[in-house]
Amino acid sequence: MNQHLHLITLGVKDFEKSKRFYAETLGWKISRPQEGIAFFQAGGVALAIYPREALAEDALTSANGSGFPGFTLAYNASSEAEVDEIIADLKSKDVKIMKEPQKVFWGGYSSYFADPDGHLWEVAYNPFFPFDENGNLKLE
Predict the structure, then answer these.
(1) How far apart are alpha carbons 85 and 68 in whole angstroms?
(2) What structural domains does the chain harbor?
């Protein structure tokens, strides 16, 4: 398998509410509009939201479960000030902030918020991860 990640699909309880959150609250543009699923271009990766029950059915598994899912999604900012601006904007839109912006043990600065289904998003400034000319992280 090639070392690529192309699509992340989040199973959501209320599709319309989640679609409004990503499109209106975060201001992301829906790509390839279709009924019952929403795609958002996110750099070189796409994010999709899809009804949780239908996603579990497609994967032949149970949709039951709660608590921390063992993963987070992340947006890397270009500065600490950008982290603060994003979190202030989300607060003004009544988004649940899980962790206030702060310096962290690994030498960066980060905060966390939750989407309507509790999926955790980190907004971080990492001085050790530069961006390429397309705004993608350069790890090598």
Answers:
(1) 26
(2) 1-62 (3.10.180.10), 71-140 (3.10.180.10)
- pLDDT tens-digit series, residues 45-104: 999 999 999 999 988 888 887 778 878 999 999 999 999 999 999 999 999 999 999 999
Judge whether 42 and 76 are in contact, CB under 8 Å: no
**Sign, CA torsion 29/33/38/39:** negative
Does the predicted TM-score (pTM) go above 0.85? yes
What SS3 class is residue 99? strand
The terminus-to-terminus CA distance of the chain in angstroms comes to 20
* Three-class DSSP labels, 105-140: CCCCEEEEEECCCCCEEEEEECCCCCECCCCCECCC
**Per the structure block, which two tokens stand in for 93?**
């839109």
